[in-house]
Amino acid sequence: MEAAANYARTNGLAIAFDVILKYRAAIRLYERLGAERIADLAHEYGDGFTEPAAVYVVPLPN
């Protein structure tokens, strides 16, 4: 994630992504690597099925 953050900073980009909340191990990893949760949302599928998710951003190094 550090390499991606450095690339984003160098190129004037931001890093944002979402993750389904049931993937707790992934969330722990992202948070341990410095990602910050900024919003909650629901993934809606064509069959009416929804799953709760969260949006994360990666703070960029100075």
Tell me about this structure:
This protein is of the alpha+beta class. 29% of the residues lie in helices and 35% in strands. The chain has helices at residues 2-10, 24-32, and strands at 16-20, 36-44, 50-57. The longest helix has 9 residues, at 2-10. The radius of gyration is 13 Å and the shape is elongated. The protein starts with a helix and ends in a 5-residue tail after the last strand. The mean pLDDT is 91.
Defining traits:
2 helices; 29% helix
Structural class: alpha+beta
Outline: elongated
The proportion of strand residues reads 35-45%
H and E string: HEHEE
Please give the largest β-sheet: 3 strands, antiparallel
Radius of gyration: 13 Å
Return residue spans where pLDDT drops below 50 for at least 5 consecutive residues: none
Spatially, the strands of the biggest sheet line up as 1-3-2
How many angstroms does the end-to-end distance come to? 15 Å
Number of domains: 1
Helix content class: 25-40%
